[in-house]
Design a protein that fits this description.
It is built from 14 helices and 12 strands. It is an alpha/beta fold. The chain starts with a strand and ends in a 7-residue tail after the last helix.
């Protein structure tokens, strides 16, 4: 019999209301022990809760959800109590004193939902993203994933693989009979369209872009106005600004949301070949490394000397002496703010094109890797090739779809996934 677990699921106290969730075979017994009775199923009831000695703990709303039609797939109870720290601590102490009950581990409620078939792995990943969503775009993508949008598609793909496999197996098993000769004429075209569809999914913007933000690196030589622009974009005095060359010696990163789009802005050490000390040289090397990994570089250095694809920015337009450019994408002053709003709007429009569309399912690294396996297996099939090899490639594609939804997996992977969740979820 599994343990019965409990935890506060409503966040850190104090608050007006706290929700303590109990899940497992003894959830009902726990309510009886604290409240003296079980409330009517799926209806909130006001109950006086007492500890083992009969002392009143709180007056709370209590809900009872028996059976498998619950969030975790097992008996579930909720206590909606006052949200003070002392109240929550007293109730948790009383629950912990009951036989067979223990505090939940991080993500254990959701893990039980997965193990009991209440959600698949893709939906669980979407729920994890929803809990950590900080921008509207992140929320919309996570809602789609947690609601099963990807799961429905993958289950459809799995059915199509099964149909193709059935056609191959029919020829292998009954190819010498009169009514079964060769693969249907539609087999090759169906397979080709299937492969194209998977490749289209693989080419979509990834979930990491939403989760981590559009990565913008501000780069150029010393005293080009990089830190001033960085502070203007993040709207904070995050970077130290002085007229001395080499003030910025390491990477300074700040995540922000602009227009509902997540960004990572990175300020870097000024790039120069001569005059840098040992510490500044390390900062310059790190600057070159983050430039190579950037989604976009704002180049404040000499025109044409930035990395390929960088935006030419003419900065410090308020200064009497500045580095003029013939065709910059933007002219601006981080100090006065002139031109910064136009740059910000341009960044938002550009980042939106690189992000999944609102509500569109976005694959994470694990899902992308498994879908790549399935696409590779289907792409390896030759309609006139060995049918045994074709059957094996179709089996490999089906296996990838199963693992994507959690039909097969390792404990290490599950531990890593559900470890992202907070206690109480």
């Amino acid at each position: 019999m599994p343990d019965t677990i409990f935890a506060c699921s409503s966040g850190m106290p104090p608050a007006a209301i706290a929700v303590i969730r109990i899940s497992g075979p003894q959830a009902g017994d726990a309510l009886v022990a604290l409240g003296g009775r079980l409330p009517v199923e799926r209806r909130a009831g006001l109950t006086v809760l007492r500890d083992g000695a009969g002392a009143e703990l709180d007056r709370a709303l209590v809900l009872w959800f028996p059976g498998t039609r619950t969030a975790t797939g097992e008996d579930l109870a909720e206590i909606h109590c006052h949200g003070g720290r002392a109240v929550i601590a007293a109730l948790e102490q009383a629950l912990g004193a009951l036989p067979g009950l223990r505090r939940a581990e991080p993500g254990e409620f959701t893990r039980r939902a997965f193990l009991n078939g209440r959600m698949d792995l893709a939906e669980a990943e979407g729920l994890g993203d929803l809990l950590s969503a900080e921008t509207e775009m992140q929320r919309q993508a996570a809602v789609a994933m947690a609601g099963g949008a990807l799961s429905v598609v993958v289950k459809g793909w799995r059915e199509r693989v099964l149909m193709l496999s059935a056609q191959v197996e029919a020829v292998l098993d009954f190819g010498d009979e009169d009514d079964v000769g060769a693969l249907p004429a539609s087999f090759a075209s169906t397979l080709a369209m299937f492969h194209v569809e998977l490749c289209e999914w693989l080419s979509r913007p990834r979930a990491e872009a939403l989760r981590e933000g559009y990565r913008v690196v501000i780069a150029g030589p010393p005293n080009a106005g990089k830190s001033t622009l960085f502070n203007a974009l993040v709207e904070d005095d995050a970077a130290i600004i002085t007229p001395l060359a080499g003030t910025t010696r390491d990477i300074l990163m700040r995540p922000v949301a602009l227009g509902g789009v997540p960004f990572q802005f990175l300020d870097t050490a000024g790039l120069r070949d001569d005059g840098a000390d040992v510490v500044e040289s390390i900062g310059i090397e790190r600057a070159r490394e983050v430039m190579a990994r950037a989604d976009l570089v704002l180049w404040l250095g000499p025109e044409g000397e930035g990395p390929q694809g960088a935006w030419e920015i003419e900065s410090r337009i308020d200064a009497a002496v500045r580095m003029a450019k013939s065709a910059p994408r933007h002219r601006l002053s981080g100090k006065t703010g002139e031109g910064v709003d136009a740059l910000r709007r341009d960044l938002i429009d550009t980042a939106r094109l690189a992000m999944p569309k609102p509500g569109q399912v976005a694959l994470n690294a694990r899902q992308h890797g498994l879908l790549s396996e399935a696409a590779s297996a289907l792409g390896a099939i030759r309609p006139d090739g060995d049918l045994l090899l074709t059957a094996e490639d179709l089996r490999a594609a089906r296996s990838a779809f199963d693992r994507l939804l959690g039909g097969a997996g390792t404990e290490d992977m599950l531990d890593a996934l559900f470890g992202r969740f907070c206690i109480g979820k």
